[in-house]
Amino acid sequence: MNRIAALFLLLALAVAGWLKWQVVALGDRLSEAQQENGRIAAALADTRAAVDTLQAAAGRLAQEEEALREDLSTAHRLALTREQKIQRLLNENQQLRDWFNTALPADVARLHQRPGFTGAADYLRWLSDGEPMPDTGQPSGD
């Protein structure tokens, strides 16, 4: 019986040793999982902060867009009012109508001509390459 008891004791010690080894291994895995969980939580917090920042920026952009749309609408209304006023004045005054229909002098018409620009650099180059108006030495009639 001693042999059986010794065998059971040896078997119990082996099982206890194996269980101890499993507990240590599981503890290590738990520690690694907790560290990974901490890294994921930090990344999630960073992501949430970035999302909050982007949502705030999107809200500001939407408000700015709405303000620009209102400004554009106001500008359209003002342009329409100005155009109507010009048309009313032209209809009321023959002398003004004749002046309005007169062609611009060649030098002034040239100022209104612009080439097609593909970017800001082209526009700046065009501005710096511009030719000065000729000085006729006479005061303008208008």
Average pLDDT over all residues: 86
Rg on CA atoms, Å: 42 Å
Instruction: Output the structural class.
Output: mainly alpha
Unreliable stretches (pLDDT < 50, length at least 5) are none
Number of domains: 1
Largest sheet: none
Query: Number of DSSP strands?
Result: 0
Element-by-element helix/strand order: HHHH
**Helical coverage, percent range:** over 70%
**What is the beta-strand fraction?**
under 5%
Q: How many H/I helical runs?
A: 4
Q: Per the principal axes of the C-alpha atoms, what is the gross shape?
A: rod-shaped
3D architecture notes:
This protein has 142 residues and is mainly α. The protein has one domain (2-128). The protein is built from four helices and no strands. It has helices at 2-92, 94-101, 106-111, 120-128. Helix 1 crosses helix 2. It is rod-shaped and about 135 Å long. The mean pLDDT is 86.
What key phrases describe this protein's structure?
4 helices; mainly alpha
SSE diagram, text form:
Elements: H1 2-92, H2 94-101, H3 106-111, H4 120-128
In a few lines, what is going on in this structure?
With 142 residues, the protein is mainly alpha-helical. The protein has helices at 2-92, 94-101, 106-111, 120-128.
